[in-house]
Every structure is written in structure tokens, then in C-alpha cells.
Amino acid sequence: MLTHLQRVRQSLKYRGQSATKSTLAGTACPCINSETLTPSREWHRDNPTAADCSGTGLISSTRTNLTIYTFIQEMDEEELEKLPPGLRNVAALKYFGAVDASLNFVSVASMDEKRDYVVFDSLKYIVRNVDQQKFGDSIWYEEAILERRTD
Ligand SMILES: [Zn+2]
């Protein structure tokens, strides 16, 4: 018999939409400011011969694209009104957890807003406002807002 967790994962896989989780990993660039933890353009101006991270904060980086299965829906007006002010006017979608092809739960919680994104219907989205619920040690539910990237 399937557990609740297995049923949730199977329904994501077989009834959900497919999307791509795209993440960038690499070596931290020396330009990263130790206080703000953000990449510094000034550092690159002062060190013109150093490898350029192009504002990502990573050098020798590799992008990984993982196919995920998830439920994504448009937000209705009432939901949009409850969003924080900065998100209210964006083309936002609501996202409900994901699994990979082998039914492993895929979390989007640690995705970086500058480097990582989700591709859905050929459009790129930044993951915002992740809300997780755990069952024991396993995340069984995750909800997030997908904010349309403007680039
Ligand atoms: Zn850099």
C-alpha cells in the first residue's frame, strides 16, 4: 500500500506539469564581499586579470538542468493581493512541490535568485517565498511563488 508521501509524489509525477530546475554551481569568486556576501564589480575593476564571474559570484561554474514534475498554476486576484508589495505586479505563478523522474522530492528552497531559475513553458522564473512542511525528516510539501524573470 502506498503511503501518503508516495501518493503525493506519484501525483506530482503523473498528473503534474514538467519544468526545468536550472542551478549554477562552481567555485566562489574572490570578489564576494565578506559582509554582504554579494559579488563586487569594484573588486573586478581593481583586479582586471582575475577570472570574471560576470556578477554571478561563481567562477569555473557548471549549470545543471534537472527535469522536474510539479503543479504550477496562475494566481487569482485575491492571492495576488496577499503577496508582499514587491511581488504584486509581477507575472506570478504558484508552485506546489516537485519530484524528479525517479520520484525523489526536489526542493527549490535553496535556489539562488540571481543564478538559478525554473523554466516553465519556455519562460524563466525566479523562485520566491518558499514555504515548506515536513513529515518527520522528509519535506512532503513545498509551496513557492515563481516570479517571471525580465531578462
Ligand atoms: Zn566575481
Structural class: alpha+beta
Quick check: average pLDDT? 88
Principal-axes geometry comes out as globular
List the uncertain runs. none
Helicity, in percent? Answer: 10-25%
Number of helices: 3
Distance between the termini: 46 Å
Structure explained in plain terms:
- The protein is α+β, with helices and mostly antiparallel strands.
- The chain has a domain of 105 residues.
- It has 3 helices and 6 strands, in the order αβαβαββββ.
- Strands 1-2-3-6-5-4 form a 6-stranded antiparallel β-barrel.
- A hairpin with a 2-residue loop joins strand 5 and strand 6.
- The longest helix is centred in the first third of the chain and has 12 residues.
- The relative contact order is 0.21.
- The site of zinc ion has 6 residues, from loops.
What are the salient characteristics of this protein?
single chain; 151 residues; alpha+beta; six-stranded antiparallel beta barrel; 3 helices; binds zinc ion
Task: Compose a concise summary of this entry.
The protein is of the alpha+beta class and 151 residues long.
Strand and helix map with partners:
Blueprint: H1 4-15, E1 17-28, H2 41-46, E2 58-74, H3 77-81, E3 92-99, E4 117-120, E5 123-135, E6 138-148
Antiparallel strand pairs: 1-2, 1-4, 2-3, 3-6, 4-5, 5-6
Zinc ion is lined by residues 29, 31, 39, 44, 53, 57.
